[in-house]
Amino acid sequence: MPSKPKVQLKDIGLDIGLAFAKHVYKTDYLHYGIWPEGLKVEPSNVLQAQTNYADLLLKNIPEGVESILDVGCGSGKFTEQLLDAGYRVEAVSPSPHLSEIVLSRIGKRAKLHQSRYEDLNLGSRFDLILFSESFQYLNLEEAFVQTRKYLNPGGFMLICDFFNREQAPEGSNPFGLDEKSPISGGHGIKRFLEIVEGQPFRKLEDQDITAATAPSLDIMRDLIHEVIRPSWNAVAYYMGSNYPKFTAFFSYFFRKKINQAHRKYFSGNTSGAQFFRFKTYRLFLYQLEPDNKIDV
Ligand SMILES: C[S@@+](CC[C@H](N)C(=O)[O-])C[C@H]1O[C@@H](n2cnc3c(N)ncnc32)[C@H](O)[C@@H]1O
Q1: pLDDT at residue 177 in the model
Q2: Together in a domain, 60 and 193
Q3: Fewer Cβ neighbours under 10 Å: the N or C end of the chain?
């Protein structure tokens, strides 16, 4: 019997993220928000900020586009919006749990491919391929091969995601020698731009939305500080007083992971200011040269 594929930690992270987002912020989106001046950075405004992000995506779909492949469609909330806007949509989701949620939301209105984008095997092409905060999970080279394969000649690639900066932006502390970003995720922006330069794509848009998206991390910091950390401390206290030997063994065995979690999440380093320093959030729109597709 073939062995079951192992569950990936990042998938579990997204499943838990969605459960929190639904319960705490009353939202089904799994992307950052756009926080314009005047929108107070507080939990009750998360859904509004994320709706602003979805509106920005819709605004950047070029006229004439009819068919869209939504890669890494999360809970399918934005896929549904695309369908409601009249586009013909297919979606890609490698996560079994998220796929169930997508299916319950969109039913048969859109075809759902439960697969990694890199492994996708289709017989059709699209006018636009969308990567809404899913691009960072993909193998860069394989993603370009697939995108050239599944775009119609002259089709569009819309990427809205964050990348790692090579150096701190002007006016903020330069990166220390061994300093690592406390916030994970994202391809290096330099490498991405170099690779795309060698591809048959023409850049139509490059919008830097880092400052507008960074407050999403302040929301996350407050959630960690006010909910997750006190819960963790309470469980640690209970375990330490009731099962001291087990707790000592557990703490020793997982000391690296525990220290890493403290450094990343409990140090207060997950914040908008740190996000702005280490990451650059970009909306890129590219058009495939009309005579440069790969056969499907
Ligand atoms: C942060 S969520 C974004 C969800 C949604 N696009 C949105 O904007 O709300 C990242 C998505 O990428 C998907 N993903 C992760 N690795 C992937 C891969 N190799 N191929 C396709 N999708 C992937 C996840 O399952 C999830 O749906």
Answers
A1: 74
A2: yes
A3: N
Instruction: Give residue 125's domain range.
Output: 9-213+281-288
H/E element holding 222? helix 215-223
Name the phi and psi angles at 136, rounded to 5: -65, -20
pLDDT tens digits along 262-278? 666 666 678 899 999 99
**CB-based pocket (< 6 A), ligand 1:** 14, 29-31, 71-74, 78, 92-95, 98, 116-118, 132-134, 137-138
**Taking Cα atoms as reference points, which of 204, 124, 200 lies closest to residue 159?**
204
Judge if 198 and 233 occupy the same domain.
Answer: no
Look up the pTM and report it.
0.88
Calculate what percentage of the chain has a pLDDT beyond 70. Answer: 92
Residues 194 and 228 placed together within one structural domain of the fold: no
**Residues 48 and 194 placed together within one structural domain of the fold:** yes
Distance, CA 265 to ligand 1 centroid (Å)? 22
CA–CA separation, 192 vs 208, rounded Å? 15
Q: At 110, which CATH number?
A: 3.40.50.150
Q: Largest Cα–Cα distance of the chain, in whole Å?
A: 69
